[in-house]
Amino acid sequence: MDFIINGQGKGDVANVLMANGFDVNALRPYIGKDGRSFITVNQNGKPMSLVTNAPATLRKDEWIALDQAVVKAAKPRLQVVGDLRAAGLEYSIPNGMGKTTLETESQSDIADASVSMDGLRQGDSDRPQYDLTSLPLPIIHKDFQFSARQVMASRNGGSPLDTTMAELASRRVSEQIEKLTLGTAASFTYGGGTIYGLTNFPDRLTKTLTAPTSSNHPLTVTEVLAMISQAKGANYYGPFNIYYGSSWYGAMDEDYSTAKGDLTLRERLEKITSIGMCKPADYLGANDLVLVQTTADVARMVNGMDVTTVQWESMGGMQLNYKVMAILVPQLRSDYNDNCGIVHGSY
Length: 347
What we know:
It is built from eight helices and 19 strands.
């Protein structure tokens, strides 16, 4: 078992991390063409290969194959997370392994400006109030192993390593990140802060919806417009994304009406001016439909470490242990008065 207590590493893995300032690249050594061990580190924003005395067991092309399998398996599972990151709603924390929480502030509004003919009227001289909030930065991780014999058999046979376990581990990590973001995984609490998702954030707005059928598509549009009005009533005006669960899948792809060549219900909702996209979310509750404003003051991903694979040895070097891990958590935000740009509808 490896752990860190009172700033001291206990075990090979913990000692390596402590000695390298929690840079996970220290746990990703590879065998160079000259037979020496190298690690890749970022220096002034550029990747540099450095010689290390860390024992390396994989060649560079083997690491590349492993990383490609991990990234390929992760991308399809990160739907809502991917949308937020693609929209630039991401806050990066350098060396996230060395931090356990993110401290942020919510801010109240100030009074309206005064209107007068000569500007001599004494205006309100107020200032915003602030409230400190804490967000935990846990590691989401899944382990797998190879034996040293498997690696050698792969090299001697000229066939690549079987990356099936790496893909499965990556899939489980990315699924957990997506579920945390949607709020369908249990909330995580640490250091006085809690990670919430779209459907369990305490400050979200809620709306009772009618079950979708082929005959009530106009009613669904009316109810979505009501959800937008709820958000606007809380001073959030879009743009919005809509995500829906599996019970909505069939209805969303049906024709909006019987008119020939008409839009589907999903396409009709995307015609609403303030709606950016309307799409399914695999891990959302079946009857849920969520409206979320796509701005950083409502929802963003906090990235302390992207999906990464690290390696260490055990059993005298006969077993090669790997861990797919990430520090990628949602941060949902409301203002000082607990107003929020998320509307959670369900039936």
